[in-house]
Amino acid sequence: MNNELLTRLLTTPGISGRESRIRDVARAELEGLVDEVRTDPLGNLIGVRNGSGPRVMLAAHMDSIGFMVKYIDDRGFIRLQTIGGFDVRTLVMQRVLVQGKADYVGLLCPSSKPIHLLTPEERERSYKIEDMYVDVLLPAEEVAENVSIGDPISLHREPHYSDRSVTSPYLDDRLGVYVMLEALRAARETQCEIHAVVTVQEEVGLRGAGTSAHAIRPDIGVALDVTIAGDVAGADKSQWVAPLGGGTAISVMDADSISDPRLVAKCKELAERHGIKAQLEVRGRGGTDAGAIVLAGAGARAITISMPVRYIHSVNETALVEDIDASVALTARFLEAAHEVDLEW
Fold first, then answer.
1. Any idea what the CATH number is for the domain that residue 204 is in?
2. For residue 65, what pLDDT is reported?
3. Beta strands 301-309 and 248-253: pairing type?
């Protein structure tokens, strides 16, 4: 696995609607893998590799969940507007990066007395995002001068790698962008016309995939995203979606799209032919960019190839290297064979 590339993707800020920094990183990598690169009005980064057809749209979203500055009080404490979904239980005393006139590392704190001063009843209290604030440890006047309403705030933690796994904020969906780039690098000979789209604003409604697919009008759409592993304490096996170590996940359906059965069959056949470890995924909640692709224009055939991840939407999202590598391999082999799919009903 290319740890250096993945680290740059994971540590570059880019919440939904404020993706300029991560777009620059993705562009620098994409330019050497396609014939042309452009950015559309919403901010989607689109790389085109020429071919005779069919037209295949790869989509992986570069945006992440995060916060915006909502209010700054007279002590310099920052109140938050969430961008995307959070489990507030995982946020207390985490580090964040406030992107004002400069970058400021802050602490995400609950509005509460120190634990030594709490009563037993107060210690049992659960928090809402309205109870949280960011302390950037600067004088109030300096905060007011350098931080403005609407400035983005991202989770701030370095990735941890082992021989087996990677743990980091924002595997969702910088892993998808990583898989896209590495699959384009690994795909040897492709006949299809590839539109590799690093999308924006997925976390707030699949917006970038919808506008870009409407313009591209793909014959086939392939979303690259993470999925819920579910193989954790407290969940029985019937609740597991795509356990770690099961390989890349071929999505049969999620809440926003039902994968084209011919694309599911093709991915299964390619995995078997090339010895790629893969599993089938069915989940009733959550979706990917495929949900927007299938509805673009007159509609498109679409599927999602997923990377299983534990602890999604936390600072410790965790995936296995072998599952990531399997996702790269299946995506590359699909790009090489997409012209073989019978697209007629």
1. 3.40.630.10
2. 96
3. antiparallel
